[in-house]
Write a structure and sequence with these properties.
This protein is of the alpha+beta class. It is built from eleven helices and five strands. This is Sensor histidine kinase.
Length: 392
Amino acid sequence: MIAPTVVSASAPITRAMARGVGVGGVVFAALNFPAFLAQSPTIDPGWDVGFAGAYLAATIVIAVGSWLAEVRTLQIMAGVLAGIYLLGMLTFVLALPRQGVGDPGEAPWFISLMVIGASAAAVSLPTVAAWIYLGLSGVLIAVDRLLYCAPGSINGTIEGTLFELFFCALFVALAMASRRLGELLDQAGLAAEIETRRNATQSARTRERRRIDALVHDNVLAVLLASAVGGDERVVADQARRALRQIERYGSDGDPEPVTAAQLVWELQSITTDIAPDAEFRFELDGERPPPPEVIEAVSESTAEALRNSVVHADAVDRTAARAVHVRLDEQGVAVLVLDDGVGFDAKSVPTSRLGISVSIVGRMRGIAGGYAAIESESGRGTTVRIGWMRP
């Protein structure tokens, strides 16, 4: 089975979110730099500088990687950043030489970076894990606030923690919704591609079945019918040889031999002479570029079927119909008119099961890109069959 080729919608969404985490993390670090300097005397310098350096390095790497790295690599980077922030909150207790060094209304400088850590988790983790990360972060920042500002600031700690949780929850929810949207678009795109391939396969099978139907009707049945009714032996023999050539060409895996524009005209003239020797044949040749082989085959076989229908059905009891074949071949395409002044018929009354019209002429020509066929007829007014192909 051929692998799907649908362009991923979730990949650019994930890349954009990772870019927001990286660039936003650098911006938040710059905004919190004054608080970092102000609180540095009250926090262990080893932890303070180590955490700040690891956080800043991770955000810069993500920001740069969002233009260069693969999406999966970006998710790993975001996971590392989320882990750095979580580890920082867990080890903050080791950074304080004593409890209650900050003002009751003050919070450790890294608390406001929680939105970056939560967003990084939303980029890298599954939905449930990202929400668990957010809840755990809320608990840890509440503890870190109490450690920094002393137990007496519990009211301010609750208010500040709830604000941070609500603020971060908005970003996580947006990130989850964006990721889900990308996944749904990917699923829809994949389903559409699978359906398109299924329809294309079915269409190809239908065209092949029609081609086989036309091959049998136009060649095998035509030869058997001509032989059964005692047709001219030379004509029957020529039709039999043409039928064998068509069957051999259908079963061949190789490319058909190239045919020139003049050879196509000769082929149509030969078909006219074999099937309707008394028919008038005229042509206009304006250009040397022939149609593709499949078009030549379709035009030739459709013309032959139109002539056979005319020979079998157009003559009246007391009069033989006059027939003509007009061919025009130029750089734009090929057009063939098969005309007679015979008894005609009501085109609307012809059942679709009649393969001669529905498959061997109309279906065959419409089965190729740029091909067309139309049949105009009225009782007592003759028949005109228009067969052609326009070059794209």
